[in-house]
Amino acid sequence: MRRPKYVLKAYDADEEDDETWALCADAENLFGDPPAPARGTYELIGCAPGGKLSEVLPRARADGSAPLGTLALEILDKQGERVEEWSLEDVRVLGDHPCARDLSLRDITIEAREAPHNPFDYPQCPPLSPGYRLLGREDVPWGSCRDLAHVPEGQPDPVEPPVRLFGCSPRGALRTALDAGEEDLGHAKLIRLDAAGRPVQSAVEGELVAWIPSARGRGLVDLTLEPWSERPPTAAEEVWELWDTGRPTEPGRWARCGAESRRHWLHTAREHHRPDRPDAEPGATYHLEGRRIIDEPGFFCALGEGVNGPGGYFGSNLDALADCLRGRWGARRPFTLVWHDAEIARTCLGLVPRTDHRPWTFEELLAFLVEEGVDVRLV
């Protein structure tokens, strides 16, 4: 059998459970990036348009559509006070017509995609609410509407293929189930292994639904797993290869990754953090190597390495960083952070081609650290 890349265990097994269901040489259809947010068609019912929304309507009527940008729907309670906000991005106005409920108002048809940070899948006003207040960027008022309707497109959800596991050597409960000819093979989790057979990161969980004898060797089987958890992103494969010899010992290895892989590097590093290790005493000095900090994920990769060594973790966003600064993540305040080659980060951070949510700039990250009691020295 080739060196196994994955181990299969019961989905509810804890880290101390040594019972292995199978060692697997390889996997197919394992990785999957979430699809780009789908665009949908919506009706803003009973609109009193204002601001830019009112301005683009004549163009939409003349040309068939007109760009609007980001549109926030502020949900109002029965007193007209804000309850929550729900947003649509990359909005285009397709047209309008008189509202059947009130001819003084308009029903406006738009095409857009849902913002990824929305607090729920679809907005719903509380009883007796007057509807929504419509806002542009920076809360610029664009009028109001009484209701929102999603126009179904009738497109079926894409069907993802099952995960195939090749060259598996079954043992334990799985071996017993196969020998007994059971149809229910159980619920399992798949874990990526490094070259020494140590766990790197959990990959996916799901139900084992089928098996066949494997062409990869006598006594081996190929298994089919239907995932119920999210599949790891394609970026995970690049990160796992860099962790294949264990936790990195070479500084800056994360910089070999692309931007998406640097984000996944942070998840992998977090899973390898040892919470049982005591924090360094307050007053310590850490060095942040800034030559490779060209984006926000790179900043957090470099920070984790500066505090906890290669492969270390010390936050993946500002909320997580604030948690780390409270202790049990390697460093205790107050401490000094010497930021080398800071001008590179000053130039690069906060800049990406067209994005809906601008990443943090160098100045904003620096101000956050200082406010949190970190003595930052730029060199």
Topology:
Layout: E1 6-10, E2 22-28, E3 39-49, H1 51-63, E4 66-76, E5 82-98, E6 106-114, E7 132-135, E8 141-145, E9 147-151, E10 163-170, H2 172-179, E11 187-193, E12 199-213, E13 221-227, H3 235-242, H4 259-271, E14 285-289, H5 296-308, H6 318-324, E15 335-340, H7 342-348, H8 362-371, E16 374-378
Parallel strand pairs: 14-15, 15-16
Antiparallel strand pairs: 1-2, 1-11, 2-10, 3-6, 3-8, 3-9, 4-5, 4-7, 5-6, 7-8, 10-13, 11-12, 12-13
Helix pairs in contact: 3-4, 4-5
Quick recap:
This protein is α+β, with helices and mostly antiparallel strands and 379 residues long. It has helices at residues 51-63, 172-179, 235-242, 259-271, 296-308, 318-324, 342-348, 362-371, and strands at residues 6-10, 22-28, 39-49, 66-76, 82-98, 106-114, 132-135, 141-145, 147-151, 163-170, 187-193, 199-213, 221-227, 285-289, 335-340, 374-378.
How many helical elements?
8
Which structural class should the secondary elements be placed in? Answer: alpha+beta
Strand content: 25-35%
The beta-strand count equals: 16
CATH topology of the largest domain: Barnase, Chain D
Note the run of SSEs as H and E: EEEHEEEEEEEHEEEHHEHHEHHE
Uncertain runs: none
The coarse overall form would be flat
Strand order of the largest sheet: 1-2-10-13-12-11
How would you characterize the largest beta sheet? Answer: 6 strands, antiparallel, barrel
Integer average pLDDT: 92
